[in-house]
Amino acid sequence: MKYHIEYSLDTEEHLQVLTRRQQIIILNTVEKQLQYQPDVETKNRKPMRPNPLAPWELRIGNLRVYYDFEDEPEPIVYIRAVGVKERNNVRIGKEVIQL
Questions:
Q1: For burial by CB atoms within 10 Å, which of 9, 12, 79, 90 has the most?
Q2: What residues does 69 pair with on adjacent strands?
Q3: Residues 6+ apart with CB under 8 A from 82
Q4: How far apart are CA 83 and CA 65, in angstroms?
C-alpha cells in the first residue's frame, strides 16, 4: 500500500532553516523511506518514547524527521517536524529540543 506524504505547516518552516542540500536530502529520503511501510522498524526508522513531537523518527545522518501515520480512511504519513541532531538535543527550526 502506498502512503501519501503530508508535511505540516510547521515542518515547512523547519525546512526553511536548513540548507538547500539538507532540504533535498530530507525530501528525497522521506519519499523513498516512508511511502511504503512507514510502520516497519529499520536501522534508521524507529518508534520513539512518548514525546511532544511524534511517535516515529527517521534518522538521516545527523538529520531527523519526526512523523506519524494512519491507514484509514486513506494511507497518509504526516511529517510533524524536521531538525538537526546536535549531541543530546535536536534543533528544530530555531528551537532546541531535548528528547
A1: 79
A2: 77
A3: 11, 14, 15, 18, 26, 63, 64, 65, 66, 92
A4: 7
Rounded to an integer, what distance in angstroms lies between the CA atom of residue 33 and that of residue 43?
A: 12
| Residues in a beta bridge with 71 | none
> Cell match 523513498: residue?
32
The structural domains of the chain, ordered by start, are 4-98 (3.30.2310.20)
Q: 0.70 exceeded by the pTM?
A: yes
- Per-residue pLDDT of 2-32, as tens digits, reads 999 999 999 999 999 999 999 999 999 999 9
The residue behind cell 511501510 is: 37
Q: Is it true that the peptide bond before 73 is cis, omega within 30 degrees of 0?
A: yes
Q: How far apart are CA 27 and CA 25, in angstroms?
A: 6
- R_g (Cα) of the chain, nearest Å: 13
